[in-house]
Amino acid sequence: MNIAVAPQVLESRTRDRVLKVTSERGPVTAATLAEELGLTTPAVRRHLENLEEAGLIVEREQAPTGVHRGRGRPARAYVVSDAGHQALDSDYDHLAMEALRFLSDEAGDGAVRRFAEQRVADLEQRYAAELADAGTSPAARVDALVAALTRDGFAASARPVGEQASPSPFTGIQLCQGHCPVQAAAREFPQFCDAETDAFSRLLGVHVQRLATLAHGDHVCTTFVPTGASPPAATGTHPPSTPPATTTAVTPTEGSTR
After folding, report:
1. What separation in angstroms does the CA of 242 have from each of 190, 224, 235, 246?
2. Per-residue pLDDT tens for 217-244?
3. Can you state the angle between helices 7-25 and 30-37, rounded to 10 degrees?
4. Strand 77-80 relative to strand 28-29, pairing
């Protein structure tokens, strides 16, 4: 039996797909979205215009690609706005925030930190087996982590940076997360970002560096995973979430795919 679907429903579903892929690939052009979604570029532009009018996406300059485009205005590229991320988030966010504020008021920030660590520990335990199956190659382990994060709603991707054959400490992989299910909580409680960064360090076996976060207003969370010379060992129980100022020389790239 064939069940007809109203055109407006199909239109809404396609617009949701455009928003989701924009969160994963942004900054992204209409042409790239059309190729990714199997749609025509004019159709994608129509959805982008609607999303922009609704305040769910904003125009953002693309990072240089080294490809000469010739004269003329660069193609328009888009990222998901704060309102767009909220539209992708669960309706239960406000309840979670109330619970976290109550926990912080009643038991202190340390209790929030322990909660964030426990939440990440559950993810870390599940991911550990998948990364173990990937072997010891840093690139393979990052790929496994990207797959696991994407499955859990983080819209993850990765790309190599620097000269991969170089022993430079600035050679590595940028792990990007275009969406964060706990973005609203992390904006007010950075313990969530700290706990996640520490977990990435343990899972990947290297001291990773968090360079940008959605919670701080960036359009993507970016984490640098070194694959060259190892940086100086960190002291303390947890690797620091923010690297010393003298070692932060890698600039986060605007969105990425690997």
Report:
1. 12, 11, 13, 11
2. 888 899 999 987 654 444 333 444 444 3
3. 110
4. antiparallel
